[in-house]
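Worked example 2:
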Amino acid sequence: MGEDRRLDVLRAIVEDYVATREPVGSRALTERHHLGVSPATIRNDMAALEEAGLIVAPHTSAGRVPTDKGYRTFVDHLSQVRALSAAERRAISTLLAQAVDLDDVVDRAVRLIAQLTHQVAVVQYPSLRRSALRHVELVSVGERRLLVVIITATGRVEQRTLDLAEDVDDAAVARLRLRLNAAAVGLRLSDLDRVRQQLVEQVSAGTGTAPTGAGDTDLVRTVLDAIAETLAQESEERVVVAGTANLARSADFARSISPVLEALEEQVVLLRLLTEMAEDEAAVAVRIGRENRYEPLVETSIVSSGYGDGAAVARIGAVGPLRQDYPGTIAAVRAVARYLTRILAG
């Protein structure tokens, strides 16, 4: 019972500090919250919380503020996440549904997160390696030249132009297109190696749904090599950021805000953080303060969630100060991730 009450006291301290930015004392807790105990008991609970490293006195006053550990305990014991209003849900659905392509979807999503959370929003582009294949298109674009277009279930489009060793007629291109899509559609691109040898053997033996012509075996190898090389490109991984002005206006940073803003401009840093957070089993992952393990971001908290049909193919999130509305941020990130998944799947 005492442990539950102390968690209630911690929750009250976090909520008041987030709302007022002022250290919270026992008198304020007694006046603002119905904790059902005497002020003396609250003072004892606060002393126990301070001894446990969950709250701390920022200076010689009666007030206390949460520590990184205190915020972590608060987040881990959230009984419910604040529900978005009907207007917020409608705005998310409408704005994302109006997108015309993947770039537009990502741009709208990152702006939504920034507007809903009043923080810095980050959206990772869907990863080719984790995306399911929707279609492979092959188009002859001249003598001994072939355009290979890879379209994923998340709307990513990648293309390569191949210079061939010899002429290939349109019938051979059509046969390979048919075989490749029949064997690979629905697979994740990282799993295409499983069908590579099968396709080569099928074409060599002349089996399957279409007849085999001369040169088909070389053509299938060339096209599959091009797809593999496309998947190996590191340039596919990138993050879009919006709302840096939200963070710049915050008065919650003891040190200069410049290192934080510089860190947010580093694609490699953000990608590494999002990749690490993808290992969290929670639907919405939260990294608080020094849990980020990157010095310029130790005064921030990052909330992120995966999106994409089936397994998550990328992440979306918000970066803000330690003192923030965690239930509201979690709700916004989760909602936009779900709508983003639905839009891309459609």
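DSSP finds 13 helices and ten strands in the chain. The longest strand covers residues 133-142.
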